[in-house]
Amino acid sequence: MNNALELDNVSAFYGASQILQLLNLRVEQGKVTCLLGLNGMGKTTTLKAIMGLVDRVEGRITLNGQPLVGRTHLRARMGVTLVPEDRKVFASLTVHENMTVAQQLTGSGKDFLIEDAVRLFPRLQERLEQKAGTLSGGEQQMLVVARALLANPSYILLDEPTEGLAPDYVDAIKESIQAARSRNIGIILVEQSLPLALAVGDDFYIIENGQTIFNEPRDAVMADPAILEKMLAVE
Ligand SMILES: Nc1ncnc2c1ncn2[C@@H]1O[C@H](COP(=O)(O)OP(=O)(O)OP(=O)(O)O)[C@@H](O)[C@H]1O
């Protein structure tokens, strides 16, 4: 079986404006694929196109060989979870209730449990009965990442998960990405911080004007300073 999430000549539109232009991307299960690029180039739109959150898509999006189509909740059921930039938790539910709801989302196995989530994010352990709306920004981000893992998806799409976070939280997010990879989850990471991308990434893409203009595996990036220069230019 082809264990990859693939975008093949994908164009995406908001109303009449075309944002993605024949974009190609391939993410394997158990790998971290980083999307880099300057602001407004289409990174978030790429994640939204995968989830069916843009007005129109042309081209082919496939999940392990099957077309990924239909409404967002159906795509989630097929095994893709998006962690958007806005870090939305269910504010009036407790941390524990937020986690329980996430577990019911995909129904695709129960490998990653609440015990695993609190081991990864000990700060959440102390706050399980607290209303999620009262958590700090960093704690809320841990909760949304924990919820993504608890849905036991095949792929997680992370949109700038460390933006504005203190170093301790960034480390926790890094560990959670590594934990997800070790569970054979494929990850798309949109990340402005090159050090973080380099710390966890297996493959690197640069998106410019809605197209992938660069696609290099980790070994090539580490071996060639000229490639690293290109990545630094879009940080
Ligand atoms: N709902 C929308 N309707 C119309 N245009 C939009 C919409 N959302 C985004 N765009 C436009 O699509 C383009 C790509 O935006 P996108 O958010 O995908 O970029 P990005 O690479 O993720 O940038 P950033 O790092 O700033 O989040 C931008 O020009 C943006 O203004």
UniProtKB/TrEMBL annotation:
GO terms for molecular function: ATP binding; ATP hydrolysis activity; branched-chain amino acid transmembrane transporter activity. SMART domains: AAA. Gene3D superfamilies: P-loop containing nucleotide triphosphate hydrolases (3.40.50.300). Residues 5-234 form the ABC transporter domain. CDD domains: ABC_TM1139_LivF_branched. It comes from the Bacteria. Keywords: Amino-acid transport, ATP-binding, Cell membrane, Membrane, Nucleotide-binding, Transport. InterPro entries: AAA+_ATPase, ABC_transporter-like_ATP-bd, ABC_transporter-like_CS, BCAA_Transport_ATP-bd_LivF, P-loop_NTPase. The keyword Cytoplasm does not apply. One of its GO terms (biological process) is L-amino acid transport. The keyword ATP-binding applies. Transmembrane segments: none annotated. Belongs to the ABC transporter superfamily. This is Amino acid/amide ABC transporter ATP-binding protein 2 (HAAT family). The lineage of its organism: Bacteria, Pseudomonadati, Pseudomonadota, Betaproteobacteria, Burkholderiales.
